[in-house]
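Record minuted for completeness.

…
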Amino acid sequence: MTPAQLLELADQCVKCGLCLPHCPTYAELANEGDSPRGRIALIQGWASGQLDLAPPLEGHLDRCLTCRACEVACPSLVAFGRLMDGTRAAKVRLLPGWRRSLRLAWLKILSSPRLTAPLGGLLRLYQRVGLARLATWAGMPRWPGIGPWIRLAWIIPSAAESVTPSTPRSPDLQLFTGCMGGLAQGRAIAAAQALCDRLGLRVRVSPKSGCCGALLRHNGFPAEADAARAAWSRGPDHPPLVGLASACVAELREGGPGTPQVIELCDYLDRTAPLDHLAFTALEGRVLVHEPCSHRNLLRDTGAVYRLLARIPGLDVRPLPGNTTCCGAAGTYLLSQPAMAGALLAHKLAALSKLAPAFLVTTNPGCALHLAAGVREAGLAIEVCHPVELVWECVKGRGPRA
């Protein structure tokens, strides 16, 4: 976006302050610069040439989670997400060429399933030979820069699993696995494939999956993000594109008419699949539902998750307290802003400690890894998983309903 375009978006804000109670960073820091209207004022000052892009200003902007809770609360319908993405793109354009290239290369590594897929096996080896325990003993999870990576290295192997491609004729749906699906949601993808097979649904899982574009867009590369999203453009004769990750579904839906049917998996199962024909094994225990910002604030309908879990006899299903506030994962935010990510995670862990559920479910893989790392470090006996994993666990040993 040009400075004029940024100003046009920013000028829609009337500075009423109704967004302030909904902003996680403002709640933590009580600093106007870390509120939505404060950030908008800073963007206006920079775009109009009244303020320089100095480190303090950049700090306020970089601490934004882009959770978009402020958009839901805004009476003026300010497109805050578009404004922040545009501002980050404008900042990236000001970087020296070598820094832009280095940042883009790093993001393309993170968003390449060909490069991320082998990491699960490498991290299992990292744990098996004792390097993970050595890093923990040395206090490396608390080191600046490397700490978040060390924390995630404990968790990823438990979520990773190879994705099995399938290309049936006349598929009923195509499962979108994304750039890090096998690494961060491998078990969930396997459960989704098995459940759909039990339901008699023909599932296409492309052997050449790829990024939806969200990772690139939120880090200042909109053209590359558009290209990644365009690769998933589909005509009206294609089966619906069904995604497990709420953030990916939200990004693909914003692609316009080229992606007319992009559905979140729980929503698809709830309103499309013949679940009434399944017999469910009872599962005693409490499950708390974490509602990711991408699901709550962008897709804006988390009801299917609760309805899906309500089919499991004996399960006590409740929302995780504080669902209106981001957990701190926010894409790459947990890596770039570990202090704030940790502070927001602490609120979730306090609620989990108090309610002591057996399971915590979430529809976003980044949130799942972030929450699971916190659960492990807090010593809580809670399994963090995707809702479809619980559903399949209660179905796989049963035949059809009598």
Observations:
- The chain has a mean pLDDT of 90.
- The chain has 23 helices and eight strands.
- The two ends are 59 Å apart (CA to CA).
